[in-house]
Amino acid sequence: MWSRHQFHAIPLHRNLSIRCPTFNGKPKQRLFYITGRGYKTVANASAKRRKEFVPSAGQQAIVHTCRTHNVIVSARPGTGKTATAEAIVAAYPNERHTILLYNKGLQIDTAARLDKYSNARSSTFHGMAGQLFDTVVPNDAVLRALREKGDVPVWNGKPYQRVILDELQDCTDDIFWLICSFISAITNAAHEKAPRIVVLGDERQAIYGFRGADPRYLSLAPSIMTTLSPHTWAHHTLSESFRMTYENSAFVNNVFLGGEKYIVGSRRGPRPIYLHAKVFESESIAIYLLPFIQKYGAEETAFLAPSVRHNPPLQQLINHLSERHGILVAEPQSDDSPLDDDVLRGKVCVSSYHQFKGKERKLVIVDGIDDKYFETQARDLPGTLCPNTTFVALTRAREQLIVLQSNKNKPMPFLDMVELENTANIVELGDLGGLSMPAKPGRSPDPNLILPTSVAVSDLSRHIPSEILDKICTKHLRIDRIAEPLPESQHIKAPTIVLTNPDPQKRHYEDVSDINGLAAVAHYEVTSFGSLSTLQMCPAPFTKLSNKITRAVWLCREACKYAAKASGYKPRLIQMKDHDLKWFASGLAKATRRLKTQLPEDAKLDFEVSLEKKDFSMDNISRDQPRKTKLHGRADIIQYYNPSTNKSKRRHAKRVIEHINSNSISIWEIKYVAQLSLEHVIQVCSYAYIWCTQHQRQSPPKILLFNVRDGEKWEIVPRGGVDSLRKVVEEALTAKYSTAKTLTTEEFLKKCAETAAEVEKNCGKS
Description:
The protein is α/β, with parallel strands linked by helices. It has 4 domains: 57-238, Rossmann fold (3-Layer(aba) Sandwich); 268-428, P-loop containing nucleotide triphosphate hydrolases (Rossmann fold, 3-Layer(aba) Sandwich), CATH 3.40.50.300; 454-487 and 602-737, no CATH class; 495-583, no CATH class. The chain has 26 helices and 26 strands. A 7-stranded parallel β-sheet has the order 13-14-12-15-16-11-17, with helices on both faces. Strands 18, 19, 22, 23, 24, 25 and 26 form a 7-stranded mixed β-sheet that branches. A hairpin with a 6-residue loop joins β20 (497-501) and β21 (508-511).
């Protein structure tokens, strides 16, 4: 045990008031150029202000090399990948450049930064695919369909002399196919003159293996891209992080990376804090953290955790900060959906490690840094090395980094405890008896299927590679698209975010995409049947309202309350207490009319039906691991139609479900989304399977997916009845909770060669 005298007392921080220097009684105009991103601070009293771009020495070396070579750049966190791309574009004004990125938000920022250069453009990989194949490519599923069809890529624009590929450690086989297709197409357009290639990335930031990503697309780029560009390859490293301080970089290098000088900080800052606490004592943690949040501001604060959806201690802490201290919080909607900058503005960000990749804040509080992480999130890792996800989370802070460890868990097994004391302030909240020593490293990674005790159906298909979802659905299901999306003009358009504070200096927004879906089904239910099971409440208050708008407002508010209860987070509900909630008033009536065209008037419907299978069992290679789990969730609508009874009885009488033929029963999943997906298919099929087991049915009911927003409707038919539904659930669980076999280097290179050959054949080269 570490004795109490080894812990350091940390002074509380006061709000800081900063005065700008004045000139003739007015604030002196200054341009603040961030040196680490290739800018410098200069005073400028003129009306016209221009940012002066000054590449660092490392960036200048890359610029010089890429004139004659292809370049692979190992760019550590905060080392200025976008600035490097700009430096290349600026250095070669007579050459055309394209920068391809994964993240849409980063692409927008990059496009704005390169706007002054006429010789460059940026695009997401999917956006570029749309240009290459002359169709909209919103996701990997559509991209894969194009690949399977063998469509020939055609580039009708001007060719590029240089292609810059960002975050290549996140590349998948389908994206590599797209890269090969793109470079082959622009080479053809340039009369077989291949472009030079610059690839950027960091193997330690490879965190999307669950999507099929492989960091070797970055590290082995010279080997796998030989057929794309004949130029010699050179390697450069950017290790000076303009985001990180000396203190934070030393903490990460020495405590988590075994002393490797992987990142070099660029300025002084506060020592990191290693906070040892009872994580359910939210008040004491909040009191400790509050001065830091007040010092740096809500907009410069982030809470990061392995998961934010099912994290009661984090939910309790965030609710305490919101309710008791009035801290504005951007409430998380999921563990994986993109973070909206408008919603984040002026608020504390609560995010999963994965969601926050590519972002940064001055104050970052990282939860989940303990040995429990290897039991819940990283079972396939040995425990002797820092997980990439942990590394990403630890490298997001520009100033103050705070690591939170639960007193019920031990430190991560690979931590250097001597360096922890040397590089961080260890703070213990309460009488916890000191920080335990970590367990000895060397646990064996377990790639086998290990089921959690409980799985929510709504989570089942998350973090499963789209190609695996496609294989599961193709093998076991027939998906009949019985209604195509309506024309854009007929879509029911409701805002996904709403303005809650119109003050020009603040302009706070809240995400309401989930409320739209809840309110749409609830409005249909209460106006058609007089019940409100969708929101698990009595409809009496609604029926007393006569005005259409006041009814819509009431429903949206109740949907917001229901969502807060379901998610465990209260900030959005608190922050919307004064909002007029009228954003969906006209849309609710349209949604109800659309649902009425789908659901027969003479049918009896049950809404928000609780479904559960307590002992779903699977074979497991490892005998000492759990083979059973509880599947649970709520089906949106179950429709019963019994031809032997009249309309009034069907509507009001209690049904004996066992006496109703499965063909007269339909399970509906109602969505209000941009488009339906295979994740939704897995979800509704899981509900159908649980329903069949609960009611001992040998034949499945009708299974229907309906998107209220655009009218698209799918019917899912299991090829082998209930047995196929079970296999869908089994294979989804296997894909989610076991680790796919990693290809050997030889196998990986062979696969890449086959992909490149596939593209050459399609382009008519072979």
